């Protein structure tokens, strides 16, 4: 079977769907989104998402800030409620070094328009009464941060895209990106050949594999992130908690369960296996910080795979030497926070042929040569 489209997007995660929406909103709706599994099978459907702006580099804070603004506007944009609850998030320090670092970042975040408050331990205790004050030296609180329902965000996009005429093909894997004479020609799947002058690799942690078929090497490492959820509890802790000290987070979800996860992982493990090691590790840390959790039941565990780059920044933009091939990957631990900005900027790049300044720090060029 032979098909054609103006744009083929490989990957039906939040980056692929978000980009399809941005392009369709600019009048390009002859788009096919290929997803090798069901929508949400990748990290976008496995993240207990905290939209958080506790970033430390200017360009990343700018992306995160747009993320919050867009999440607030999403019900109007998609005519779909992403259930975005803005109870803020707090980044906790347990050592003087961490507190100094947080203080520095608070200055940078405020200078870029992200309202961040530096809090003393007693102020944190007021905000989170069950916290063990002895374990904290201070923290940074961002009131506008929040938690959406990732499936509502994903399926809000699916609904909107379907109305806009975009074709989403779940359970269709892109096998090869076809390139001839330095130009992208299309994508081969098991049952069809899709001709398209523009291909976007938004394949998450596995973006490197499909890029290789076009002769393009990208330094993306798939990394496992594990999570557990507790039984449902009465609403008890409003802000999401991030521990700078322990590389872990916990946040109460809409239905009352707490999701606890970590941003530390064994490098390069691309499997979806849950481990007893993680269960023990995270339980110990959470109970140290909030002793009452010793009495809370753990209900489930799962894992997701994210794509991480050597400089921990996404790779977004056109590939030199392969006309029509774009990369939108390497979103790491913050892809949900960054998706509104990176997909808007990439859509601008694709439609105008000019790379917006904000996108330049994320160009694939930095890894060429
Ligand atoms: C446990 C966990 C917690 C997280 N917490 C947060 C958080 O609190 N805040 C935040 O902002 N972010 C968080 N993230 C990160 C965020 O989820 C990711 O950065 C984001 O979802 C990346 O989106 P994506 O579309 O690039 O990738 P994915 O969602 O992984 O989508 C890529 C898709 O491409 C498909 N695919 C791959 N190869 C092919 C192929 N050859 N053909 C067709 N389809 C293909 C995959 O099946 C997949 O569905 C978390 C991630 C995890 C795993």
TrEMBL record:
The keyword Transmembrane appears for this protein: yes
Record's keyword terms, sorted: Membrane, Oxidoreductase, Transmembrane, Transmembrane helix
InterPro entries: FAD-dep_OxRdtase, FAD/NAD-bd_sf, Rhodanese-like_dom
Transmembrane segments: 7-24
Domain Rhodanese, chain residue ranges per copy: 3-50
GO terms for MF: oxidoreductase activity
Record-given protein name: Rhodanese domain-containing protein
PANTHER family, alphabetized: FAD-DEPENDENT OXIDOREDUCTASE DOMAIN-CONTAINING PROTEIN 1, SARCOSINE DEHYDROGENASE-RELATED
Coiled-coil intervals: none
GO CC field: cytoplasm
Source taxon at top rank: Archaea
Keyword NAD included in the entry's annotation: no
């Amino acid at each position: 079977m032979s098909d054609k489209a103006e744009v083929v997007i490989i990957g039906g995660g939040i980056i692929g769907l978000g980009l399809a929406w941005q392009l369709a909103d600019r009048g390009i709706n002859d788009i096919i989104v290929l997803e090798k599994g069901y929508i949400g099978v990748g990290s976008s459907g496995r993240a207990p998402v905290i939209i958080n702006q506790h970033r430390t580099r200017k360009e990343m804070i700018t992306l995160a800030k747009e993320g919050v603004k867009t999440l607030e506007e999403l019900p109007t944009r998609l005519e779909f409620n992403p259930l975005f609850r803005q109870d803020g998030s707090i980044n906790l320090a347990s050592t003087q070094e961490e507190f100094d670092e947080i203080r520095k970042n608070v200055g940078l975040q405020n200078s870029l328009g992200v309202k961040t408050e530096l809090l003393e331990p007693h102020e944190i205790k007021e905000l989170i009464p069950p916290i063990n004050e002895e374990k904290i030296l201070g923290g940074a609180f961002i009131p506008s941060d929040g938690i959406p329902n990732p499936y509502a965000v994903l399926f809000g996009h699916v609904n909107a895209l379907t109305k806009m005429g975009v074709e989403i093909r779940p359970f269709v894997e892109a096998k090869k990106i076809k390139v001839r004479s330095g130009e992208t020609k299309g994508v081969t799947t098991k049952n069809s050949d899709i001709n398209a002058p523009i291909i976007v690799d938004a394949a998450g942690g596995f973006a490197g594999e499909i890029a290789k078929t076009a002769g393009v090497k990208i330094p993306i490492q798939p990394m496992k992130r594990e999570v557990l959820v507790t039984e449902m509890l009465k609403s008890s802790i409003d802000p999401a908690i991030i521990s700078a000290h322990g590389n872990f987070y916990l946040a109460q979800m809409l239905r009352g369960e707490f999701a606890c996860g970590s941003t530390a992982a064994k490098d390069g493990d691309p499997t979806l296996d849950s481990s007893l090691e993680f269960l023990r590790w995270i339980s110990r840390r959470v109970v140290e910080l909030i002793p009452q959790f010793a009495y809370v039941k753990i209900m489930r565990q799962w894992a997701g795979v994210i794509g991480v780059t050597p400089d921990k920044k996404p790779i977004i933009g056109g590939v030199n030497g392969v006309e029509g091939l774009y990369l939108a990957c390497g979103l790491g631990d913050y892809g949900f926070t960054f998706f509104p900005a990176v997909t808007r900027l990439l859509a601008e790049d694709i439609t105008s042929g000019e790379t917006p300044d904000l996108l330049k720090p994320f160009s694939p060029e930095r890894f060429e040569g």
